[in-house]
Every structure is written in structure tokens, then in C-alpha cells.
Design goal:
- With 133 residues, this protein is mainly alpha-helical.
- The protein has one domain.
- It is built from six helices and no strands.
- The protein is globular and about 40 Å long.
């Protein structure tokens, strides 16, 4: 897994929160599918960044199997509403869900080839948001 860029993670999370505020304020066209897709992908992204930050600290916790199962569920849940907006991104979120069922089985090359690294997926979610604003 590539090193986590905290600044990028914060930028992506702030961007996703901003689009939710814009939708709430009526500044962008709201659709139930769009809101569900953003809510689910935001939850998966935040949970992933949080977990990765915890396990990369110098006195980090060891892997948390229950947390990884939760991440798999969150990414799978994000894939469902995204399929109406961006099939490729939805497919990659589903792959990301499978990834979290056994991340030790993936090489960095496989993650890059599948385009499921957290920074890549979160960036693509933000790009989707920009297309809708």
C-alpha cells in the first residue's frame, strides 16, 4: 500500500463535505441517487483514511479484522448507489470491498492496476462530485 498523504485525504474529505453542504443548500441539483452515492462513498473514504492513519502510527494498533470487515461492507455499500452514476467507479468500489476481505493478498502493483488505492478512489469520487456541480 502506498504511503497515506494526510493533506490529500483531508482535501478529499473536505471536498466531499462541501458538496453535501451545497446539495443541502440547493446550490446543486439534488437527486436521491446522488446523495446516497456521496453519503456512502464519503463514509467508506473517511473510515478507510481513519483506519489507515491508525495502523501507520509509530505505536500503531495491529490489524483490526473487525474494522477491515466493516470497511469491506462500507465499500460494498458505496458501490450500489454509485452504479447509477459511474459504473466504472462503482465496480472499483466493489473490488475495494473484496480487497478489504484480505488486503494481505494484494500487491501494490495489483492495487494500482485495479485503480483501488484510497487516494485514487477518493480522488475519482471527488471528480464525480465536480461533474455534478
Amino acid at each position: 500500500m502506498s504511503p497515506l498523504d494526510p493533506a490529500l485525504g483531508l482535501q478529499i474529505v473536505n471536498g466531499l463535505l462541501n458538496v453535501l453542504r451545497m446539495a443541502r443548500d440547493g446550490r446543486i441539483e439534488r437527486t436521491e441517487q446522488f446523495d446516497k452515492a456521496l453519503d456512502a462513498s464519503l463514509a467508506a473514504s473517511i473510515a478507510t483514511y481513519s483506519y489507515l492513519g491508525q495502523i501507520r502510527e509509530p505505536d500503531a494498533i495491529h490489524r483490526d479484522w473487525a474494522k477491515e470487515a466493516e470497511l469491506a461492507r462500507l465499500w460494498g455499500n458505496a458501490a450500489v448507489p454509485l452504479r447509477h452514476l459511474d459504473k466504472d467507479l462503482a465496480d472499483r468500489c466493489q473490488i475495494k470491498a473484496f480487497y478489504w476481505t484480505g488486503p494481505e493478498g494484494w500487491t501494490q502493483g495489483e492495487i494500482d492496476e485495479a485503480r483501488i488505492g484510497i487516494d485514487k478512489i477518493a480522488s475519482d469520487i471527488q471528480d464525480l462530485r465536480r461533474k455534478r456541480t
